[in-house]
What does this fold into?
Amino acid sequence: MRCLNCISLFFFLLLFQSAYAQRENVISEESKVPEYQLPDILTRFKGGKVKSEKVWVKKQRPEILKLFTNEVYGKVPGNLDLSEVKIWETSDQALDGLAKRRQLSLFFKKDNHNLEVNVLIYLPQTNKKVPVFLAYNFTGNHAVFNDPNIRLTESWVANNPSVGIINNQVTEQSRATASDRWPVDEIIKAGYGLVTVYYGDVDPDKNDFSDGIHPFFYKDNQNKPAYDEWGSISAWAWGLSRVLDYLEKDPQVDSEKVAVLGHSRLGKAALWAGATDTRFAMVISNESGCGGAALSRRRFGETVQIINTSFPHWFCDNFLKYNGNEDILPVDQHMLLALVAPRPLYVASAEGDKWADPRGEFLSAKYASAVYELLGVEGLPVKEMPAINQPVMGTIGYHIRSGKHDLTLYDWQQYLKFADKFFK
Ligand code: GTR
It folds into this structure.
């Protein structure tokens, strides 16, 4: 028994040491960024330049999309449509009469699998179709806004006693605990709707492929996705597209003006949703960092190896090949951003969010601009990184704000301005 304890202590120390060593090597100064060469976005993989919109749309874009699918995020193994929609409640009296509220569930069914995705919608008081922001939240719809009518999620949520999440279940104490991130009043007053969903409804964020959407597609004896099949980010992106399927049928939503937005890991999912589903009219990445907007080859802050080690379920297993080996990646994240072109794209960073590599996020947007220009629109309107709190907005927008890793009112104010530019 004692010996067993010694052995586990030994392994614990070994693990701790290797995690520590990994963090020790994290690049946090610009001068330490290694030399790297990015794949040129307008050079064909078989050689030659992309000189026309046609070659971009018919050849280069599909090839880039396929590489991201097979090597980074993983492919969705099949099709599955919405089986049923259940409207739980509607009210015209939300936000003291300023807004309409709707709560509904989208049900997915296949063989003996069932999945329920809860959707919370706030819309301005009008009978016209309105543009909306579609965004996942981290801990459940009830956390987004101080409104006792919002249903508490019954899904698995990562424990966090400080916001009343105990035994992986939320409690009354969890209400409005993320409301700082969701300025619902401002969004509504600006004439937009907000559609939000708890991301764990689609796939709980843990290294466990027995729950969420993944098992719906397993073949006999399969218990996790194959090496080129979807990780969690790809599953979350799939979920965003299924919510959009519903929004296309909603008479009060202008489904041609849906901006998909996400913060951090959910920013990675929003980008992948925007890349795979061109129905999203605008894509907003809030501090999505490694595997999102930031260039992998810079290895600044979080690296491919670190992210694959801390979150082994986020990407497909093929992505493991690039641990510590970013230079052999056939793509880099500027190419992911270019998949959104010519649709409006906003990339945001925060000064205190070095882990997400703000400069790497900016450069990615800058290099993606070549595709926007080829398609006849302005990409980023600047060549140099703007100063703190000085947003720039072409068809690609960018800002780096003061403060830490977060989704703030300041961020939303820029997104509302950006949306006005294209949606109003
Ligand atoms: C961090 C992770 C980042 C980012 C973040 C988040 O721990 O390293 O890639 O996704 O989580 O989602 O909050």
